[in-house]
Amino acid sequence: MAQKKMVKQKSVDPYINVCLFMFTLVEVLGFTIILPLFPYLTKDIMSPVELGYLSASNALCQMVTAPIMGALSDKYGRRPLLLLSVVSTLLSFLILANAETKFWIFFSRILDGLLGGNLALARSYVTDITVNDKEGRTKSLGMIGSAYGLGHVLGPMLGGFLLSIHYNVPAYTAALLSLINLLFMWFFLKESLPLAKRCTKSISVFSFGTTLSDLFRICGTNREVMETLVIRYAYTFILVLFQYSFVYFNTMRQHNDSIIAGLLLCWFSLFYSLSQSFGTRVLLSKLDERTLFWYMVYTQPICYFILYLTETTEQMLFSLLPLAITSGVLNTLINVLTSEKIEKLPRMMVGGGLGLSSAVGSLARMMAPPFAGFFIQYFADPCILFLYCAFFSTILVFVIWSSTMMRSRLCYYL
C-alpha cells in the first residue's frame, strides 16, 4: 500500500497535461494557420524558389539555436525560456502581418526560428516532471504529439477561411493565438526545473561555447544517444518526404484537385494525432514498449508500399489509416526513447540534449523538401517517392536491428 501511494505521488498532474496540450495546440495552430498565406506571397511578392528558401531559413535557424535554447533552460529554468520563445513567435507574426517586402517577411520567419524552440522546451519540461514515471512520460509526450497533429489538421482549414477575408488576417490571428498562449503560460504553467538541479556554471560567450562543445562531445560519444538521434532524423526525413510529395501525388497521378488532396492530408493528420495519445496508451496496455516499437518499425515499409500501389481515392483513404496510426505511435515512442536516453546525461545538459534532438529533426525537415523536389522535377512521377519512403524505412529497420544485436552481443561477452 505504501509503495502504491509513493508511485501515485510521482504521477503527473492531469492539469499539467492539459496545460501542455493547450500550449502545443495553440503554438502549432499559430504556425499552420498562416500556411495558406504562402501561395499568396508567391503570387505578388516572391518566387516559388524564394518561398522554399523562406521555409528552409526557419528550419535552419531552429536547427542552430535549439541546442542553445535548451542549454540556457538548463541554467535559467524552462519557464523563462518558454516565455521568451512565445514572445518571439508573437512578434514574428505581427511583423509578418504588416510586411510588404521580402526583407521583412524573411526577418519574421528567421526571428521565429532563432528563438522559437517551443516544442523542444516543452519536451524538456515533460522530462523534468516525469522522473521515475515512465507511464506518465509516455502519456505526456503523447499528449504533446496529439496536439501537434491536431494543430496541423485545424490550422490550414482555418487559415484558408481567414485568408478569404483579407491576406493579413491569418497572421494577425496567429499573433492573437500566441498572445493567448503567453497569458495562459504566465498564469498557469509553473517552473519544472528546481534550482538544485540547474547548471551552476556561469554563462559567458567562451564558457557557453565550451558547454555546447561538451554537449556535442558527450552526445557524440554516447552510443545510445547517437542511435536515438539517427532514428529521429530518419523518421522525420521519411515523414516529411511523404507529406511534401503527397499533394503532388494526388494532383499528378490521382488527378484530384487541391481541395481533395488537402482533405486527405487532414484525414491522415487526424488519425496521426489520435494515435499519439489514445492509440499509444491502448496498445501499451496490451504490449510492452519494446515489442510495440518493433511492430511499428516493421510495419512502416509495408504501409508506404501499399500507398504506392493505390489507384483510386477510395483506396488511398483506407491505405492512409495504417500509415497514420503506425507513424503516430512510432513518433511517441521515439520521443519517450529520446527523453530516457538524454535524461542519463549530466543534469546540466538535459535541455541542451533535447534541443539537439529537435535540431536533428529541423535538419531533416530542411533536407527532405529539396530531395523530393529533385525527384519530382526529373522523374515527373511523385509516387516514386513512396517507394523511397519504403526503401528508407527498410534501411532504418536494418540499422536498428543490427545496432540492437551488436549491443546485446557486447553485453553477453562483457
Low-confidence runs of at least 5 consecutive residues: 1-9, 204-210, 408-414
Return the CATH class: Mainly Alpha
Overall number of domains: 1
Helix content: over 70%
According to CATH, the homologous superfamily is MFS general substrate transporter like domains
- What percent of residues are in strands? under 5%
Derived structural class: mainly alpha
What characterizes the major β-sheet? Answer: none
Query: Mean of the pLDDT scores?
Result: 75
Principal-axes geometry comes out as: globular
CATH structural fold name: Growth Hormone, Chain: A
If helices are DSSP runs of H or I spanning 4 or more residues, what is the number of helices?
Answer: 16
Order of helices and strands: HHHHHHHHHHHHHHHH
Q: What would you report as the Rg, rounded to the nearest angstrom? A: 21 Å
CATH architectural group: Up-down Bundle
Question: Overview of this structure, please?
Answer:
The chain is an all-alpha fold. It has a single domain (13-188, 220-413), classed as MFS general substrate transporter like domains (Growth Hormone, Chain: A). 84% of the residues lie in helices and 0% in strands. The chain has 16 helices and no strands.
